[in-house]
């Protein structure tokens, strides 16, 4: 890949990668760091990356960086300081977007990632499998289970409203 192609890839894909990571971890600063790290890794590996496959490379790199960050933070988490109110729901109807965000928060990391890649970013199953290093059938199963879990949660919310 050439310098011009690298600059084009930054222009074309930085916003999408940022949205994907932000939707997963809900922290703008960490999302910016992950995106920056992903583009740094691309720059270091620029000679070996095909420009036609740069989008997949960036999303895969960002996804792996995000998973590494999540794993590091899980080890550091102090369970005595966990706020119980974030795990309970006592609010009234707050709007569809908020309910969907709450449903997304209840998913596991991998379920949230594949649903966001499929439903928010528009990737097909094969592309998601490449990014997450899962088989295509695993991706379909995770998406199905995630959607079912979200549907069950939203159904519970309708009875509350």
In short:
With about 160 residues, this protein is mainly α. The protein has helices spanning about 5-25, 30-45, 55-75, 95-105, 110-120, 125-130, 135-160. Helix content is about 75%, strand content about 0%.
Structural commentary:
The protein is mainly alpha-helical and 161 residues long. It has two domains: 1-81, Rna Polymerase Sigma Factor, Chain: A, CATH 1.10.1740; 89-161, Winged helix-like DNA-binding domain superfamily/Winged helix DNA-binding domain (Arc Repressor Mutant, subunit A, Orthogonal Bundle), CATH 1.10.10.10. The chain has seven helices and no strands. The protein starts with a helix and ends with a helix. The model has no long low-confidence stretch (mean pLDDT 85).
* Secondary structure tally: strands: 0
H and E order: HHHHHHH
CATH topology (fold) name of the largest domain: Rna Polymerase Sigma Factor, Chain: A
- Averaged pLDDT, please? 85
Supply the CATH architecture of the largest domain.
Orthogonal Bundle
**Residue share in β-strands:** under 5%
Unreliable stretches covering 5 or more consecutive residues: none
Share of helical residues: over 70%
End-to-end separation: 54 Å
> Radius of gyration over alpha carbons?
18 Å
- Structural class comes to mainly alpha
The major pleated sheet works out as: none
Q: Please report the number of helical segments.
A: 7
Total domains: 2
Output the CATH class name of the largest domain: Mainly Alpha
Oligomer: single chain
**Molecular shape:** globular
Family: Belongs to the sigma-70 factor family. ECF subfamily.
Domain RNA polymerase sigma factor 70 region 4 type: 98-150
Protein name: RNA polymerase sigma factor
Organism: Ancylomarina salipaludis
